[in-house]
Amino acid sequence: MSEESKTRYRIGYALAPKKVKSFIQPSLLNLAKERGIDLFPVQTTKPLIDQLPFDCIIHKSSDSEWRNQLEQLLVQNPSVVVIDRPEAIERLHNRVTMLQAVNQLEIANGFSIGVPKQVSVENPQSLIDCVASSGLRFPVIAKPLVANGTAGSHQMSLVFNEEGLRGLNLSQPFVLQEFVNHGGVIFKVYVAGQHIQCVKRKSLPDISEEKLSVSENSVSFSQISNVTAQDQSDDGVELIEAAELPLSSFVTEVASQLREALKLNLFNFDMIRDSRVEGRHLVIDINYFPGYAKMPRYETILTDFFLDIVHNKPSVVSKDC
């Protein structure tokens, strides 16, 4: 009998009910249990210290009271691994700070990685001036600055001209991100420690100069990978099937470097292939603890990650980061 099958490990999860429903599937619970991992819900309304023992805690919260409980736990029980630290998660709640790490990456082998040109706007009254001074070119995507997973944080607009900017109903700080033609396909890269998987999804279609001149002023949508009905075409499936995934070695290098730079283990990032430059890719968004259940074989990948944690492999980002 292997050591893995003889030893049992307890992993606590502190997740919102919606996340529990999508992530803690029977298929995940059963596979994890078969391999020595028992997943237990953490009651966030009760003292965390009273719910021990746990070998590891996974969570998706930056609430101040929860952060205090985690800090106390780490002081009194340093052997418990917390995935991930709240201060690192917090960085992804801002669409400016989330992408800063991308510019630190050093990618070799003829590829390059970056982010689209973007500018943050605190005051809607200064909108036009911000665009002019930043050198942004239309079309642009207007996104709320705060990216905390709420419905409001996903409300975006594709804006084709200055008139479209003036027509935006904006009551909070936001960012304007230059839209880059990318073949209508977005690559979603899921990261769970050293385990990485890239999938392709349909995205907003390319916009030609001709279309730009005759388009309406702006179009609203919820997420860049959810195209509005008027933009969907019959050949959408063929478009995705025809698109080549980026080289696995390139995806792994970007994901691994991002993981170290962000000091996070559980996240995904949305990446597009810049149609203007050969070998150029752009990261447009990063999300903490995404919808892993949408990923093929997510149960196996997450269980492997849990085993990495409890066996304290150096490939797991340190809890002390």
Write a concise keyword list for the protein shown above:
single chain; five-stranded mixed sheet; five-stranded antiparallel sheet; 12 helices
Poorly predicted tracts of residues: 1-5, 225-232
By DSSP, the count of extended strands is: 14
The largest sheet is: 5 strands, mixed
Rg is 21 Å
Percentage beta strand: 15-25%
**Portion of residues in helices?**
25-40%
Shape: globular
Distance between the termini: 35 Å
Tally of helical runs: 12
Protein name: Inositol-tetrakisphosphate 1-kinase
InterPro entries: ATP-grasp (IPR011761), Inositol_tetrakis-P_1-kinase (IPR008656), InsP(3)kin_ATP-grasp (IPR040464), ITPK1_N (IPR041429)
GO molecular function: ATP binding; inositol-1,3,4-trisphosphate 5-kinase activity; inositol-1,3,4-trisphosphate 6-kinase activity; inositol-3,4,5,6-tetrakisphosphate 1-kinase activity; magnesium ion binding
Catalytic activity: 1D-myo-inositol 3,4,5,6-tetrakisphosphate + ATP = 1D-myo-inositol 1,3,4,5,6-pentakisphosphate + ADP + H(+)
